[in-house]
Amino acid sequence: MSESSSRLIRTADPTQPSIPHHKLSKKAPPVRIFRQDWMESLTFISFRTFLCCCFVFESIVLTITVEYNVHFWHTILYIVYGLFIWFLTEYTLHRFIFHFSSERKMIQRLVYIFHGNHHIQPNHPYRTLMPVIVTLPVGLVIWALFVFLLKIGLGSALFLGFYLGYIFYDSVHFATHNFQMKRFPFSLWKRHHLLHHYRTEEHNYAISVPWLDRVFRTHFKL
């Protein structure tokens, strides 16, 4: 499962003939997503920037959660609910949205922007994480939805767990592509996800909780 492994992939962008249809090394120039330089610059994010932004955002949510909730264990329960909702959301997004197959070039283009470029150059350190310019606005919308459904206290607690799950997911995802992770149990995460990139794109969709692939029968068997 080294970077030298390559094969044709379904997730290349059909509207850009210059995009390679094989795996690129992380040492190669980053694969192009947008033609405009200013848009292209927004697609890069470092792990440090990601953690700082998420820490600030999650701290704000935590403060509001504590401020508007009285019952401690009730709050903890909704945070756990939020985590479970995220893990199911993660699996669903990766399997059915990020790997959506269509004959329409517009849809293929969208799949390439959100995920296909990552399959062409899986280990680029500034393209392994979803940019904050995407995750923060989307997070605010989801937070507002939870608050609308459950009011500000429990809605914020639910979102606190949901976004905590997202942070865990993207951190694990970054680690599998950029850290050695040779020791158990970290090696299990790395092996599980890299099989998805270098052996089969139709299996091993779960990243945070790999056993979900066994539950939904998408686990790759060697």
Mind sketching the topology for me?
Elements: H1 37-41, H2 47-68, H3 72-97, H4 105-120, H5 132-178, H6 186-198, H7 212-215
What does this entry look like structurally?
The chain has helices spanning about 35-40, 45-70, 70-95, 105-120, 130-180, 185-200, 210-215. With about 220 residues, the chain is mainly alpha-helical. Helix 3 (about 70-95) crosses helix 5 (about 130-180). It is globular. The relative contact order is 0.16. Mean pLDDT is about 90; it is low at about 1-15.
Defining traits:
222 residues, 7 helices, globular, mainly alpha
Describe the structure concisely for a colleague.
This protein is an all-alpha fold and 222 residues long. It contains 7 helices and no strands. It starts with 36 loop residues before the first helix and ends in a 7-residue tail after the last helix.
Overall mean pLDDT stands at: 89
SS strand fraction:
under 5%
CA distance, first residue to last residue: 13 Å
Element-by-element helix/strand order: HHHHHHH
Which outline best applies?
globular
Share of helical residues: 55-70%
Number of strands: 0
Number of helices: 7
Low-confidence stretches: 1-15
Structural class: mainly alpha
Q: What does the largest sheet look like?
A: none
What integer value in Å does the Rg equal? Answer: 18 Å
